[in-house]
Amino acid sequence: MNSELIHTSLARGLDGGSGYTVAGRTGGMPRAMSDTLSRLSGLPNAWSDATIEEKILCAFRQVECAGQRLAVLSHIAPSGMDYTGRTNRLSHHRVVDAGAMHDSDPAALLEDDSLWLREWIGAARELGGGELPARLAREDAPLHTWERVFGDAGWAASVLEVVMKSGIGVWLVVPARSKKLRLCAEMMALLPQAQRWQFTFATRPIALGSDASVKICFVDEREPELAAQNEKSAWILRVGSGTMAGKPTGALAQRARLGHVASASSVAQHAVENQPRVKTKVASIGAAKAIESLPQRIKSLYEAKDKVGEFVRQFHFALFSYVSHRIPEISDELYRLDDALKAGFGWEIGAFETWDALGVSEVIKNIKAAGGSVAPWVETMVAKGCSFYKVQDGKRYYYD
Question: What is the gyration radius of the CA atoms in the chain, in angstroms?
């Protein structure tokens, strides 16, 4: 059975508290699950003239809870005034079981307004639960929203490729008043149905690297959170610039433009584009493959003087700048952020561990030379002659 939880402001919640609390949840829901869903209930501050619809956060996240991984759909929206006369919001979460995943995809379920509450009436109470309806995005239609917003539906394929390769997730900047959930649903239609439940997303900013982070956030260009970030960061994507500058090519881009139903000429074009790929041999990659130690392998690529080295450096500049500024926002202890990257994304070594391996002081100089910045506490640490980690008497310690 699929479970759900409602989190909003009440004079008395199910657990006895007041203010933002649990207003409703499926009967028998474990307390650990209830607490986990409650922690996902925040709504980011929006720009001054944002409409109610623009403030809504729709998200599909995968979160750890008591040794299990939960697939969580969230619809978080402003909800008038609460019992004290202050502005309120209502967070509606649904935990989706494996059975429902066979006949649905996350974006299509979030687009069904009938599944999501925006107002809570009455006292806190238990909910009955129940099965979710089958909801699937069409796979045979051109991506009309992408074409209207970006001028070429093929950009959906380019963004999807970047997202699937990203280790920490990305923010895609979209023009004001774009239908972000529709953009997401159309892009997910390019994936096989089973893979859509591996593709986490949000329609408002969520901090990357947190335990509730996602693979892509569709971020309105007016978002205050965007203004606080370094626009040159590798994880901030803008269609038509940077890594997204080239015209979309390939069969997937054509499918985004045409759908499954294609003319004879487009089929011929597909045949040309689907010729066997010729692998390019790059000396720096070949040399790195021969290095057994992962930290030394990364260092070899970082120091390479070719395009591979430039890519690796730019990626790590953005990564290190980002993680340094997330202390203490995400965690007071830097090792916890490294642990989250390893547990959540399968990394063998974390960001701060990698930074140590590359040489903290030298990397700071490189980042500044490239126009980036690091948090002041990192430079203070270096001035003290410290690194992020040290091993002493067989025990590993972290900088605090």
Answer: 23
